[in-house]
Amino acid sequence: MGGEIAQPIAGRKKIPGLSGLVLLAPTPPTPLILSNDMQAQQISAYDSAEAAEFVVMNVLTSSPVFDEDVQNLVTDMLKGNEWAKRGWPAYAMGEDILEQAKGIGVPVLVIAGEKDRVEVLKRVEREVVDNIGESKMVVLEGKGHLLPVEATEEVAKHIEGLVDRLNV
């Protein structure tokens, strides 16, 4: 969901000093329209600890994660604001922010998980990378959607590489 926020903000070019952008497993800037059944499933995905754990283990991650991380994620998911939980599948997924994303004028590093079931590689490449002028995509092998949890050190290494390249 961070990509859904970062892309239009960066594309408006109103952040003084912005010299680069990193998008982790980003939501494409184009609308994703879900069927009513899929939308209902998304809304109820975090209704219980069991449901949230299932989502973490079978949808959001594709490589082994520590039990403590899973429990922390589940706890956070259950604490989420009800309107926020409903807002993403009911409204935000359908937003079209493509024109703002096309306006991004700084180097963009897109880091994607090879086995991401939420934002699949082909869609990220076609709808994110291909629509942002100066962008590069790095694919983390065997990883899913929760890259900061699944590949903390790899993500940090790639971000450091961009920072070094930009001399920031």
UniProtKB/TrEMBL annotation:
Naturally occurring in which organism (per UniProt): Cudoniella acicularis
Superkingdom of the organism of origin: Eukaryota
Protein name per Swiss-Prot or TrEMBL: AB hydrolase-1 domain-containing protein
